[in-house]
Design the sequence.
């Protein structure tokens, strides 16, 4: 039996990925910082709930102890993420972005990923087929955003894409450090979720597809890469 932890899984892409992986036979832990919402989500799916705020050491450490006591973990999906917005619900641009906005975004999207991977490394290393999926974004691609012919080129935000580019670097470096693990970044696509005010152009079912696929990688699968549903993406 494969055991999977998904952070930020009480709604959106994380919830749908959890649903699909439960259906595929995984024992799934829904990590959520809101206990009530997390428990309700887990009950709906036949999953297990674990209180986990990626910005808080105490909840992460407690989640490790809980999951270790139940037998460990094989797959970690770092899904929890935020997009910091301005008072008028816009995104911080090159003209307006502040250090505090960057720090707030990085606390969840980058430092949260490091915190959770670091905490769960001992459990992952005991697994026969450990997998880490870091949910990134097409906006993380330096190649795409610097190409005037690419749609992403015109996105003006600073904090969110920068944080996801950092996540991609974490993927590369962790994959090199732990060659026995399959560690990859994924781009779900512009999906209708609370993160973007439900302005996305695809469903959560579509967005979760690459997450679910990469969460089920075999030990001979790719590692240290950046993928969407169509294959590898440029960094």
Sequence:
């Amino acid at each position: 039996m494969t055991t999977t932890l998904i952070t930020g899984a009480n709604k959106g892409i994380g919830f749908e990925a959890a649903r699909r992986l439960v259906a595929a036979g995984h024992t799934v832990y829904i990590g959520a910082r809101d206990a009530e919402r997390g428990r309700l989500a887990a009950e709906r799916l036949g999953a297990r709930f674990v209180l986990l705020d990626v910005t808080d050491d105490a909840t992460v450490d407690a989640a490790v102890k809980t999951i270790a006591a139940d037998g460990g973990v094989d797959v970690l999906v770092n899904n929890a993420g935020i997009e910091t917005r301005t008072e008028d619900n816009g995104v911080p641009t090159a003209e307006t972005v502040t250090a505090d906005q960057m720090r707030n975004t990085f606390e969840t999207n980058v430092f949260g990923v490091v915190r959770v991977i670091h905490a769960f490394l001992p459990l992952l290393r005991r697994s026969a087929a450990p997998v880490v999926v870091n949910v990134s974004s097409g906006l993380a691609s330096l190649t795409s955003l610097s190409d005037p012919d690419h749609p992403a080129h015109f996105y003006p935000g600073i904090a969110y894409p920068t944080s996801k580019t950092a996540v991609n670097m974490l993927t590369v470096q962790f994959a090199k450090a732990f060659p026995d693990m399959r560690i990859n970044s994924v781009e779900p696509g512009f999906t209708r979720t609370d993160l973007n005010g439900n302005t996305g152009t695809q469903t959560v079912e579509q967005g979760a597809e690459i997450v679910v696929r990469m969460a089920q990688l075999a030990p001979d699968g790719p590692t240290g890469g950046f993928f969407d549903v169509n294959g590898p993406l440029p960094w």
Notes: Residues 210 and 231 are 9 Å apart (CA to CA). The radius of gyration is 17 Å. DSSP finds eight helices and eight strands in the chain. The domain at 3-232 is CATH 3.40.50.720 (Rossmann fold).
